[in-house]
């Protein structure tokens, strides 16, 4: 079969690999129908050192179950399923608490040992815990929005929950990539009154406004902080969604939170230390977030997608085929595309 | 009148200063009956550069109202009042939210412009917002416990709330000073099942056990992390109260929180950056806390003190008079005393 392999920074190839197949009795074999390239895939695309073996890529996919292991009970051959970006057993202490990204017997797709979503098929471990059947046809028009539930929409929702977004609150979203845009949707959905997007790219800004952003701040650093304060009677916002991960964007996020506010961080941190922890201490700012338990949120957000109340699939502004994946990475890295969907 | 002034590291003196007096119409003049030396007073005692004018010290006190300004409505001459460690107007947006330490018109005691609690009398700004009348006599046997409500017991409670302590939870308290010991009381009061104290001093450990600590970890650094994991089935604890403020203790606190757990930090941070923010991200650990809104908590905790359900006053293991304050600092800094109370 064909699958995407990253061999180093800027070096993504679609190549022949051994066919995905069942190994454990709890596995399912899923033939991929839709997948995506994630903003977090761009971190290794920028930084990864050269590798002879490379890493299999992709952690957002929907597909059809072709086979299941002997111990799989809930998932059936022929099901159309969504796979969250982490696989999980559904039974451990963390899965029971709804934090499936910390599953004691789970993990993440791709790398050197597992299939990735950016390929023709995937062996899915812990299929009963991991996969969510979708009650729609494989080419349903809602497919882009359904695909975002596997990561970016779930992640935007997680950021909003971690930032304690609620009715009437003031919210800032730092970074208008696909996750930040979904963060705007999530903030609006949870009742935020003011939603400030911090970004400077016209395509993202336009979409954010359609999703519910009330204000745009295109300044950076100290100027951005000043501007957000101007927009919030000098106070800062109650909730901040940090959707980038750089130390600079984290500093901005922490600096625009008002006393007693909360920062939900979902941008994968690119620095081992967090800045400005003395002012955040004196302001009693809560810092929360991490990888979103998409497995828990898919079921929560699914009705809103199916009934058309949210349209996160609009973050896909490029549709490609598997052999065009290297172009998709390049376009996203060059900010010529917000997010690319792969159709099979 | 006599008051405590710090002129630099290790240099604390009790000297004559101008008598405290009303200045603003919202002021009250309070004659101090009990005060205390705080663990946080030891930070400048260790580090402060030499100062010609010095800083007035003390932020925990109880006293009798001797005079009030023309605009003071609730506080009456003759009231016995407790003063939280921050003064606040009681009406601003943050006071209304119960975060009086961020009051838009408030501040902290002492320094170069305001009286401190470690003196014979204090001008109290925003008296109606700041002071809490106590319905007991000035020499009531509960006075030590009542005095802790002005800071350390409120701070331990704040750490426990920030760490999301609740019924049946596993909790670790990093640091067994007065705040950490009050954190043990707070965790027990909120229903924690397991309370692990990280400390190595026998006097603190003994008191912590009486307050409800179920386990003691005297190791440090990586060994402490290993030990806490052993005590929690390999998982780590759900709630961590960081009651020290050093980067090392913060690293320990973050490292013993289990996935989905929370760290309530109340030790004043001694480093501008926070370590280990990548693992805490992947574990979805919440970091919260800051200066406790003692003003809000005094009223919440007061019934438990008055009815004897909690006895935080036991953290005072030394009682001194005002002229002995320099000895009190020395004893606390040398860890010969947990906390000193000043009787006037």
Please provide the count of β strands of chain A: 18
CA-based shape of chain A: globular
CATH architecture assignment name of the largest domain in chain A: Alpha-Beta Complex
Largest sheet of chain A: 7 strands, mixed
As a percent range, the share of strand residues of chain A is 25-35%
- Helix and strand run of chain A: EEEHEEEEHEEHEHHEHEHEHEHEHEHEHE
Low-confidence stretches of chain A: none
First-residue to last-residue Cα separation of chain A: 12 Å
What is the percent of helical residues of chain A? 25-40%
Instruction: Tell me the CATH topology of the largest domain in chain A.
Output: Quinone Oxidoreductase, Chain A, domain 1
> How would you state the average pLDDT of chain A, rounded?
97
Question: What does this 3D model show about the protein?
Answer:
- Two copies of one chain form a homodimer.
- Chain A is of the alpha/beta class and 344 residues long.
- Chain A folds into two domains: 2-151 and 293-343, Medium-chain alcohol dehydrogenases, catalytic domain (Quinone Oxidoreductase, Chain A, domain 1); 155-289, Rossmann fold, CATH 3.40.50.
- Chain A has twelve helices and 18 strands.
- The first copy, chain A, has helices at 42-47, 93-96, 127-130, 143-148, 152-162, 178-189, 202-211, 221-231, 247-256, 277-282, 294-306, 325-333, and strands spanning 2-8, 11-16, 28-36, 55-56, 61-68, 80-83, 86-87, 107-108, 121-124, 132-133, 170-174, 194-198, 215-217, 237-242, 257-265, 286-289, 318-321, 340-343.
- In chain A, strands 3, 5, 6, 9, 10, 17 and 18 form a seven-stranded mixed beta sheet that branches. In chain A, strands 13-12-11-14-15-16 form a six-stranded parallel beta sheet, sandwiched between helices.
- In chain A, helix 8 (221-231) packs parallel to helix 9 (247-256).
- The longest helix of chain A has 13 residues, at 294-306.
- The radius of gyration of chain A is 20 Å and the shape is globular.
- The relative contact order of chain A is 0.16.
- The mean pLDDT of chain A is 97.
- At the A-B interface, strand 15, helix 10 and strand 16 of A face strand 15, helix 10 and strand 16 of B.
